[in-house]
Write a structure and sequence with these properties.
Blueprint: E1 23-30, E2 47-48, E3 51-52, H1 53-63, E4 69-74, H2 79-89, E5 94-99, H3 104-115, E6 120-126, H4 134-143, E7 149-155, E8 162-163, E9 169-171, E10 179-188, H5 189-199, H6 210-217, E11 224-227, H7 238-250, H8 261-268, E12 272-276, H9 281-292, E13 296-300, H10 302-305, H11 312-326, E14 331-334, H12 349-377, E15 380-384, H13 397-416, E16 423-429, H14 435-441, H15 452-463, E17 471-474
Parallel strand pairs: 1-4, 1-6, 4-5, 7-11, 12-13, 12-14, 14-15, 15-16, 16-17
Antiparallel strand pairs: 2-3, 6-10, 7-10, 8-9
Helix pairs in contact: 5-6, 9-15, 11-12, 12-13
Length: about 500
């Protein structure tokens, strides 16, 4: 259990006794049935961003160093479904997947029994809040060193009104004192146990909120409120599904960066990387960088090797060349892409076909051909999108559409290939200095563009990470004037061998 023992600034200890919990347990409340979503399955089993909602939620607590154990309370009849998700994802902290109760207070009682006796930190979290952050989890646990009950909330942006049975306003509370509650809610185990023990004597007791139980039955107990986040939404209504999916698209996954050259060499020596579009731009920089760290890299492109990514025969031959030379393929990278500007109605069929073939059919063809090789090494397919995938842009509609398609392809293949251990990710760089961008937009101030080397470095970090199904943003730090290296000029007018850069 890794915790920061320093109390929050201005905190008042809940009791003079030193709190020494034996462990910290996250209880994931997954008892919802999905009736408000109109589903035939519990909403926590609905897939968002390629994974069941509950899997996203569990992943946050699995990764949180403050959490020692996870217990899942699942909707009646769906415990095997949740257990299968846990087993497939390899969540090591999950110790129990059990059936919840008919009501929230019954479920909490089951959870307390499952946690067992002893002094324990307990965090209750809604399974259908998959965008909770590690920061929120950490602050909840740290607050328990000073308080015995902790809630998570955000300020209300809307005016809250109180109405009577006729829907007429009776009061308008001062908004500055109001908060919108979220989860997790965290407790020292003796506090939540005592609150529920007292509540059992109340014939009118009904709980929908565990902090509310403490507030009502242990009124002298301070309940610390820490800041939640607008992204920590609860998937309850149909619109929430779309919002959560879009938030996952916009959330930037982070690949850990190693500390030195030796660490990268230890990871990459002996690996084989195939780069389609490896002659210029990001593909070229990634090729050179990986080679410096000891990887065997095979770049292919239309201009240097005559490889057309949309042709299955060309892709098959390229992969075979790399495999016969090294006996393995660990990573396949697809940076090939073209950008043609112009109104869709004015674009000729040949241009449209070339753009669709190279930008979408090519990656699909490569994915199909690469899978048998990547299965052998439990490797990774890495694709590239553009910031335009989040919103189609005028005068490059097909480019935007193909980049959005690659995001969906990434998430779908990550799900399809999880059983065979093959990872799939997608890099989303901001505007980058590449020959393709120069060709489309002309010369631009260097300080406004990201260097291709920076994207290559982030790409390498993703390749040696355990990420899958993620869209990884590559951005300059706010206010940072990154010096972009001038893009290399292709020797021929062949844009399909350069990396696809974002078009902001």
């Amino acid at each position: 259990m890794i915790q920061d023992h320093s109390p929050a600034l201005g905190a008042t200890p809940a009791s003079p006794a030193l709190w020494r919990p034996s462990r910290t347990v996250a209880v994931i409340l997954a008892g919802g049935t999905g009736t408000r979503l109109g589903l035939g399955i519990p909403k926590q089993l609905l897939k968002i961003a390629g994974k069941p909602i509950i899997e996203h939620t569990l992943a946050i607590f699995e990764a949180a160093p403050e959490i020692d154990e996870i217990i899942v309370l699942m909707a009646t009849g769906h415990v095997p479904d949740a257990q299968q998700i846990v087993d497939k994802a390899g969540f090591r902290k999950v110790t129990k997947v059990i059936e919840g109760g008919d009501t929230r207070n019954a479920t909490t009682r089951i959870a307390l029994d499952a946690v067992g006796e002893g002094d324990v930190n307990i965090l209750f979290h809604d399974a259908v809040r998959p965008l909770v952050s590690g920061r929120i989890v950490r602050e909840c646990v740290n607050a328990l060193w000073s308080y015995s009950a902790v809630d998570v909330a955000i300020p209300s942006a809307d005016t809250i009104i109180q109405v009577d049975e006729n829907d007429c306003i009776t009061d308008i509370p001062v908004r500055s004192a109001l908060r919108r509650g979220q989860t997790p809610q965290a407790f020292r185990s003796p506090t939540i146990r005592e609150a529920y023990r007292i509540a059992e004597g109340d014939p009118n007791f009904a709980a929908t909120d565990d902090c509310g139980v403490v507030l009502r039955y242990l009124p002298g107990t301070p309940i610390k409120v820490i800041d939640g986040s607008d992204e920590n939404i609860k998937v309850t209504h149909p619109v929430d599904v779309h919002l959560a999916d879009k938030l996952f698209q916009l959330a930037a996954a982070q690949a850990p960066r190693l500390t030195d050259h030796r660490s990268y060499s230890e990871e990459l020596i002996g690996r084989t990387i195939v780069v389609f579009g490896g002659s210029y731009g990001i593909g070229h920089e990634l090729t050179e960088l990986a080679r410096r760290y000891g990887a065997q890299v095979f770049p292919f492109s239309r201009s240097t090797t005559g490889t057309h990514v949309e042709r299955a025969g060309d892709v098959e031959a390229a992969l075979k060349t790399a495999f016969e030379a090294t006996g393995r393929i660990d990573h396949v990278v697809v940076t090939a892409g073209i950008l043609e500007r112009g109104a869709l109605a004015e674009m000729d069929e040949e241009t449209m076909d070339r753009l669709l073939q190279v930008n979408f059919v090519g990656p699909v063809t490569i994915a199909r051909q690469a899978l048998p090789y990547l299965q052998q090494t439990k490797g990774q397919l890495l694709l590239y999108t553009s910031s335009s995938y989040t919103r189609g842009r005028a005068r490059y509609a097909l480019y935007s559409a193909t980049k959005a398609a690659l995001v969906n392809l990434t998430q779908a293949l990550a799900d399809e290939w999880a059983d065979v251990g093959v990872r799939v990710n997608c890099i989303n760089p901001e505007r980058t200095a590449t020959p393709m961008r120069t060709r489309a937009f002309g010369e631009e101030p260097e300080h406004t563009l990201l260097a291709a080397e920076a994207v290559a470095q982030s790409s390498l970090d993703v390749l040696i990470s355990d990420l899958t199904g993620q869209v990884i943003d590559v951005r300059r730090a706010p206010g940072e004037a990154t010096q972009a290296v001038p893009a290399q000029t292709p020797r021929v007018a062949d844009e399909t061998n350069v990396a696809s850069a974002t078009v902001g």
